[in-house]
Write a structure and sequence with these properties.
The structure is a homodimer.
Chain A (H helix, E strand, L loop, with lengths): L7 H5 L5 H9 L2 H15 L14 H21 L4 H11 L4 H16 L2 H12 L5 E4 L15 E5 L4 E5 L7 E2 L10 E10 L2 E11 L12 E5 L15 E5 L2 E4 L8 E3 L5 E3 L6 H34 L18 H36 L6 H29 L11 H8 L9 H17 L17 H6 L13 H23 L5 H7 L1 H25 L7 H19 L1 H6 L5 H18 L3 H6 L5 H4 L10 H9 L13 H9 L9
Parallel strand pairs in A: 1-5, 2-5
Antiparallel strand pairs in A: 2-3, 3-9, 4-8, 5-6, 7-8, 10-11
Helix pairs in contact in A: 2-3, 3-5, 4-5, 6-7, 8-9, 8-10, 9-10, 9-16, 9-17, 10-11, 10-12, 10-16, 12-14, 12-16, 14-16, 16-17, 17-19
The complex binds flavin-adenine dinucleotide (FAD) (2 copies).
One flavin-adenine dinucleotide sits at the interface of chains B and A.
Keywords (chains A, B): FAD, Fatty acid metabolism, Flavoprotein, Lipid metabolism, Oxidoreductase, Peroxisome
Organism (chains A, B): Lupinus angustifolius (Narrow-leaved blue lupine)
GO molecular function (chains A, B): acyl-CoA oxidase activity; FAD binding; fatty acid binding
Chain lengths: ~675, ~675
């Protein structure tokens, strides 16, 4: 049956041009072609096979990863891939390794925080991987609270050096990827101390290991922090620990783009605006939002295809059973996640624009939109990663028992993805930042400080406080302005309610603490409004391709009405809509599920994931699930022998009642 | 610092007697002493150490498990443990193995479905583990739909045998634990065929492997189905696949307690009621609910203790930072889970009673409460396992980055627990059964068929449709009857609304399909009502111990009001409460969090988990987290050598720019 497309019927049902949708998903024809080409390149290279990694022990897995990382680098050089292509190649390799941190954090940190000279000194080495770097910020005792880091960098004016030191156990660096076994260098964050004065946390470039024999340099203790969630997942990465015992580095290894220490030990600011850091944050978080859409799209692709293959119950007079994708409960769990994947994609696209906008303004020394951009990206990072993480697990459950097998691809996808909820800002801590920003925006409403960007609607707060939805029929919920207004009114009222409750406290900080759970709900409402609005704005653009825009409209409505249904309590308690209007939305949602159903397979095909990248037998493009599951099972190491290792020693004596004498 | 209790201050804050609470949690003094004794026995036996299992490859892990299983059996015999004690010992070993299925499914299946003779024939062998059995029901193609199984057992009247056969690939048995490598026997479910007539699915005892050399018997293909979620988790179990090629077994190996095949090939029913099967289901699901409370309690214990150890932000003038447990967001995420663990415990206790009640009635041929008991246990199984699974992951997130380490115990707890959402009935499929039962109960309201047990409130539907909460002040929400009435009204109205919508369909089955997402919400509301009610009923009993009942009252209110807040949309849209009353509930909830805060550590101490069983450095009893995390890291196999295996081969050539020539 090799070569048969078991999902051909499903593909024929589609009411839109899937090739055009692929380009919309990718963002441009260029992006599509790039991804398509590189993903196939990786998929067709046997060196990148990954289907057996889950059964390896830690050392084997790590070695396997080193081999792939080196092979990837070799191919990048042989093929002369540019930066964009090389990044894609690493992405599609789909196995976390030290190279991720080298390219994703070490190099950007030097680019962002290093002076021109520093960049000239370090980047050529890093770009050729003659040195390998990591990003050493988090410590055993401090992650979220970066200002609380304990590692010190004390300036010694006599020798013109900084002395890096780990004064306490909790000051040990802990978590940096690539640190444990591989990195030769690190950007280390430490408290700058000059003449006993603490200038707060700054970045330093430190060499960790000898370039000759790879041994840690004197005064440096390094190790791996041990196993993490999942079988392979992030265990291919050497997240590490690091301690300094009075290690000296030259003064010019402090990253000095924004502030500098002079030869005499004077601390000075350069002319480069400090706000630049926020620019970098916007950049990194935009990528995270984009990645959230990718991770979710992979899970949704697997669950959707398998739900069309899997049949259970409902056979009548010998007819085939019902495809589980036809059950309304399955649809109500799956299709909102499909819609979310698209929604986050467009939110990510918009964030990319925002980043450019912010950077242009920074150049022009216009910092006015920066706080809003910062709050907005913090919020979207939090929202999208949380939904993606939960969504992957929901997709796994949607696959029933077989979803629990690593060969489904879903367990490892979950395990490798979830740290995104924690790194680059714990999701709850981030939402609190958003809430703080919203409260500030509201407190300034009367002072003529008009809220900008994604908070502009708060400027219409008075009007929104009067709002009552005028929905009369289920179809009314398909109108973009009806939806946006309801979401604006809900978000505004939740924030206003918080602001009002806060005003009852004498000490605003006490109030903020006490009400923080409510504040998080208000922040969430605000972020959901952003995603809904950006999806709708996307649809106001020209989108070519037969039926493409229509499908996206359906997805957009599903996304919004699903949220409305899920958070109906918010809408009702703020009196934005009536219970009747809520149930009309629910009715509309059901009908949208039916509309999307015939297009579901084509909509996940549009993600253009290769079978290699999906790494899932349940999600195979051809739907040939059962024979391949059966085949794959035999490859488990336990099946190498008929009688498992340990049987004769431990189980046979038990069966033969000889256990008492057996040496265990 | 060894021996110092870093959480002593926290323990001193407690306002109740933790030893008394331990007994309430355990259910009785006997249960407490048993658990306490056996858990310490296991914890103190170095053979049962489990802290390094996550870094093992599949084969090593499996061998490690065989050793522990054999050692466990040896200790059980040496110490002459009774059945109850032996079960506890296996539980506290905390590593899934073939013995779980042998004792948990194989033996009970023979007890429940075998005739007296069959029990006499097989149980002595099984009880001594001279044979090892598993439970082979699920196939590659069918899990939820048991009636769709394809394996056949065809009666051959000539030889007085059944011929077991796997006619299709999808008929391969797939998933049974213990099957892949160890079991010598299985209870196999197959379609009984006599003279070409299909009598549906029945159970058969089949020998799979030779008791001499352990090789599969002729005609039998067996293997392991491969890696599953997590590092170690369920990978210590040999979930297996099994195919029969016309394998013959004697007629008396069909389990014949309820129906029989005679020597002549006649299919007859015995006098034993078929409903017995439901009794077994109630039994198994009661255990699952109980296990849900245990699993959740472990996660909550870890997250609570670590939240008291972890400090982040909020240092003023050099004072220590804030314990993260003092953040209201942390409390709003953590304390409802703490309350849920207790709530599920009491729900499980009540189900135990229900099981006895059902069995007594069965003896007396009273089947009247059976459908209700069945629906109720299905619902509670679904509700509690879903909440426990999500709750474990939430607890992991509550621990920030360190929760992602296996040494936190949480990743593996999640990975090993989540199948409970799928086996013994997929949670969504189960809720649909509950919904079906509710709709039936409502349809019979006018026919004088009074709803019984947990659905009795539907008998007061008319009255509940008139209900409006009379809450005026936040404290009113502390009154049990106020809470129960609101939950009853909400559940009744949601079910009634579904029933009304269903009545609009010509074909009720079409309606049920179309509205199934709403039906699931109604079923959930019903199940939550049960848990709330049973918690409240528990508190109407005499509960000795200083302050114990008071704490439980707070937890009960937290459980109920948290649900009310989370599902506020249900309460508002059904017009049971007003938005104002909803926000009063929320206000009360905040104050309850403050009340429970000083007792939080003692409340998780009351679970009486040993450090061995918790398997978590973050959750250590003594709170000595950081030094132990640091110590544990060094034990990872990657730290065996300073230079990792693969470095010279793959990374050094890269650093030295010699990659082009290197043989990768
Ligand atoms: C896989 C992985 C890779 C990583 N890679 C790197 C790396 O390469 N380099 C690096 O430097 N670091 C890395 N990290 C570390 C990561 O950045 C931190 O774990 C992250 O910042 C979270 O901080 P934390 O662990 O201190 O969480 P904590 O702050 O300790 O969080 C614990 C709990 O406290 C709550 N909390 C904390 N503060 C507040 C507050 N003010 N109000 C309310 N609640 C609060 C949180 O919500 C959470 O529930 C990595 C982490 C992981 C898991
Ligand atoms: C760790 C583990 C151990 C196991 N151990 C054993 C064992 O020892 N012995 C054994 O025999 N089996 C075992 N099983 C198998 C287990 O019992 C089945 O996986 C389980 O019954 C679920 O069935 P399924 O896999 O067919 O799910 P499916 O029914 O295929 O579920 C797939 C999706 O379809 C949906 N769905 C299915 N039917 C309907 C419907 N009518 N309406 C709406 N939605 C529907 C589900 O909700 C789910 O989202 C084990 C499974 C696991 C994961």
């Amino acid at each position: 049956m090799e070569g048969v497309d078991h999902l051909a019927d499903e593909r024929n049902k589609a009411q839109f041009d899937v090739d055009d949708m692929k380009i919309v998903w990718a963002g441009s024809r260029h992006a599509y072609e790039l991804s398509d080409r590189i993903s196939r390149l990786v998929a067709s290279d046997p060196e990148f096979k990954k289907d057996h990694v889950t059964s390896l022990g830690r050392k084997e897995l790590f070695k396997n990863t080193l081999r792939k990382a080196a092979h990837g680098w070799k191919r990048i050089n042989e093929l002369g891939l540019n930066e964009e292509e090389a990044l894609k190649l690493r992405t599609f390799m789909d196995q976390p390794s030290f190279t991720d941190l080298h390219w994703g954090m070490f190099v950007p940190a030097i680019k962002g925080q290093g002076t021109d000279e520093q960049q000239q000194q370090w980047l050529p080495l890093a770009n050729k991987m003659q040195i390998i770097g990591c990003y050493a910020q988090t410590e055993l005792g401090h992650g979220s609270n970066v200002q609380g880091l304990e590692t010190t960098a004390t300036f010694d004016v006599k020798t013109d050096e900084f002395v890096l030191n780990s004064p306490t156990l909790t000051s040990s660096k802990w978590w940096p990827g690539g640190l444990g076994k591989i990195s030769t260098h690190a950007v280390v964050y430490a408290r700058l101390i000059i003449n006993d004065k603490d200038y707060g946390v700054h970045g330093f470039i430190a060499q960790l290991r000898s370039l000759d024999d790879h041994l840690p340099l004197p005064g440096i203790t390094i190790g791996d922090i041990g196993m993490k969630f999942g079988s392979a997942a992030y265990n291919s990465m050497d997240n590490g620990l690091l301690r300094f015992d009075h290690v000296r580095i030259p003064r010019n290894q402090m990253l000095m783009r924004v502030s500098q220490v002079t030869r005499e030990g004077k601390y000075v600011h350069s002319s480069v605006p400090r706000q630049l850091v926020y620019g970098t944050m916007v950049y990194v978080r935009q990528i995270i939002v984009f990645d959230a859409s990718v991770a979710l799209s992979r899970a949704v692709c697997i669950a959707t295809r398998y739900s069309a293959v899997r049949r259970q119950f409902g056979s009548q007079n010998g007819s085939p059973e019902t495809q589980v994708i036809d059950y309304k409960t399955q649809q109500a769990r799956l299709f909102p996640l499909l819609a979310s994947a698209y929604a986050f994609r467009f939110a990510g696209e918009w964030l990319k624009w925002l980043y450019t906008d912010v950077m242009e303004r920074l150049q022009a020394k216009d910092f006015s939109t920066l706080p809003e951009a910062h709050a907005c990206t913090a919020g979207l990072k939090s929202l999208t990663t949380s939904v993606a993480a939960d969504g992957i697990e929901e997709c796994r459950k949607l696959c029933g028992g077989h979803g629990y097998l690593c060969s489904s691809g879903l367990p490892e996808l979950f395990a490798v993805y979830i740290p995104a909820c924690t790194y680059e800002g714990d999701n709850v801590v981030l939402l609190l930042q958003v809430a703080r920003y919203l409260m500030k925006a509201i407190s300034q409403l009367n002072s003529g400080n008009k809220p900008v960007g994604t908070t502009a609607y708060l400027g219409r707060a008075e009007q929104l406080m009067q709002y009552h939805s005028d929905v009369l029929r289920a179809e009314d919920w398909l109108k973009p302005n009806v939806v946006v207004e309801a979401f604006e009114a809900r978000a505004a009222r939740m924030s206003m309610a918080c602001a009002q409750n806060l005003s009852k406290f004498n000490n605003p900080e006490d109030g903020f603490q006490e009400l923080s759970a409510d504040l998080i709900e208000a922040a969430t409402a605000h972020c959901q409004l952003i995603v809904v609005s950006k999806f709708i704005e996307k649809l106001q653009q020209d989108i070519p391709g037969k039926g493409v825009k229509q499908q996206l409209q359906v997805l957009c409505s599903i996304y919004a009405l699903f949220l409305l249904h899920k958070h109906i309590g918010d809408f009702l308690s703020t009196d934005c809509i009536t219970p009747k209007q809520g149930s009309l939305a629910n009715e509309q949602l059901r009908s949208l599920y039916s509309q999307i159903r015939p297009n579901a397979i084509a909509l996940v095909d549009a993600f253009n994931h290769t079978d290699h990248y999906l790494g899932s037998i349940l999600g195979r493009y051809d739907g040939n699930v059962y024979p391949k599951l059966y085949e794959a099972a035999w490859k488990d190491p336990l099946n190498d022998t008929v009688i498992p290792d340990g049987f004769h020693q431990y189980v046979q004596p038990l069966l033969k009642q000889q256990l008492r004498n057996a040496r265990l």
